Amino acid sequence: MYQEIILDHYKAKHHSGLREPYQAEVTHVNPSCGDEVLLRVQLDGERVVDVSYDGIGCSISQASTSVMTDLVIGKTVDEALALHADFTEMMHSQGRYEPDEERLEDGIAFVGVAQFPARVKCALLGWSAFKDAAAQALAAEHGQGVK
Amino acid sequence: MPDRAQTSTLTAELQASGYDVAAIRADFPGLSREVNGHPLVYLDSANTSQKPASVVAAMAEHYSFHNANVARAMHTLGMEATAGFEGARAKIATFIGAAGPQEVVFTKNASEALNLAAYTLASRLQPGDEIVISVLEHHSNIVPWQLAAERTGAVLRWFDITEDGRLDLGKAAAENLINERTKIVSIAAVSNVLGTVNPVSEIAAQAHAVGAVMVVDAAQAAPHAGVDVATIGADLLAFTGHKMLGPTGIGVLWGRYDLLAELPPFLGGGEMIKVVKLTGSTYAEPPHRFEAGTPPIAEAVGLGAAIDYLNGVGIEKIAIHEERITAYALTRLSAVDGLRILGPTRPVDRGGAISFTLTTANGLEVHPHDVMQLLDSRGIAVRGGHHCARPLHERLGISASTRASLYLYTTTTEIDALADGLNYVADFFGGRS
Predict the structure, then answer these.
(1) Model pTM?
(2) How far apart are CA A107 and CA A96, in angstroms?
(3) What is the CATH number for B194?
(4) CB of A56 within 8 Å of any CB in chain B?
(5) Annotated active-site positions of B, please?
(6) pLDDT digits (tens, 9 = 90+) for B125-160
(7) Please, what's the b/e burial string for B327-359 (b: 16 or more CB within 10 A of its CB; e: otherwise)?
(8) Domain containing B409 — which CATH number?
(9) What was the ipTM of the complex prediction?
(10) In total, how many domains does chain B have?
(11) Which of A1, A34, A59 is the closest to B393 by Cβ?
């Protein structure tokens, strides 16, 4: 379960810290342990230009959030949400999933975590926060467009 | 760190007291299994205890041969089921020193017992009345009072804790925490996180001096040293069966009978009534007033068998065993580099729930989920999280902790496995290896 990739991301989180500007900011909580992530998203049109975050949590939730930022920054919102869907499917597979390394990159390391149902929520914490924030940021973009 | 010689001395001492932990363990089939290729080391009894074979057998016997509804079924099986159910109530009454079985209300767990207390006592509350709890409570002794306060306009106040994890009675006195506006005080007898044994009798005396009702959450007390409702000073007291060798799905609210008799019903339904007319109903006397619907019959029988088991070993002996194992665990865990025990570090007025944080040699605080996961890979079961006590963790300035909790079947060998496991965890994340 504790693959090197996961430990590396945990010990040196990518894109960590809160940055400006941002169009949406969300807080997501894992109620069973109290872990929290505060996450911001900045878009440029349809493209994700920054995801910044501050969180407390276990190695799985922290590493997963780090991997997520690597994957979604620079993608369009649609592409990022498709990755979210793939990652979520992998996490709900109970480990019976052949992850596509081309698409999920370091995210494939989490297929082992999917065998531990109690830890799936940890792996999805940052991803769920991103999905929520991206939807809000998109609404903000469209709102600006109408003005 | 205690060496092997000290360990065997302690083991010999325990055996000399007539307490045969190996024989006790043989009564719990689950304790001999393996987990992830290692012998199970079950250190999560504050979460739920393991069950002796006699409890499982009593429930199977009930379902196999004496199964019927209680009270309403008048035939032979119904009488047998009722005798089993009411017999369990009587065993519990004796076990906790109640005036009689009529003071024992069956609920589904301690949470429901506390909700019953909060809901029915709230019928007496006015805006501005005060309810006093503490910052170290389990959520089940916080949220029902928050709901009662929201419904009635009462104000919720709380005891703080001192740096060593005990209720701060001095600060409470300075704040005039318990005063003439206080109508209810509800406190845990033993903290499920810190293990602190709270001075319930002393607080009950303060509550009674201002005419308040004293409620006690005994979920972490009843299984270990037992409780004596005749002397603890409580008016209402809650605990659950599954933490004291019984099945899940059954808890108890004990109440002083004259208080129970004054309280309105909680849930409405079958068997809690005297007469039902479409224009209104009258209600049964306690305890049945508070037991609407078919109760957890087999669970009550199982809890009765659990009480028989505890009585057979002797609750005083269990308390002494746990005190010794707790002392041993506090010593062994204190010797783990980077481990910080939350709450009292000496085995005085302290139960066997030991929560801690773990920091590696290079300064990383290992998250409790990661501690739990790596220990589980070595067959060791502990709990990682906020243990349903988020306000307490906030007060301590942390988001979560790891908890090892002991019981009558815990051995020093298991504590050694835990300490070794924690060194392994710290090395795994700390890069010492």
Answers:
(1) 0.91
(2) 15
(3) 3.40.640.10
(4) yes
(5) 388
(6) 999 999 999 999 999 999 999 999 999 999 999 999
(7) bbbbbbbeebebbbbbbbbebeebbbbbbbbbb
(8) 3.90.1150.10
(9) 0.82
(10) 2
(11) A34
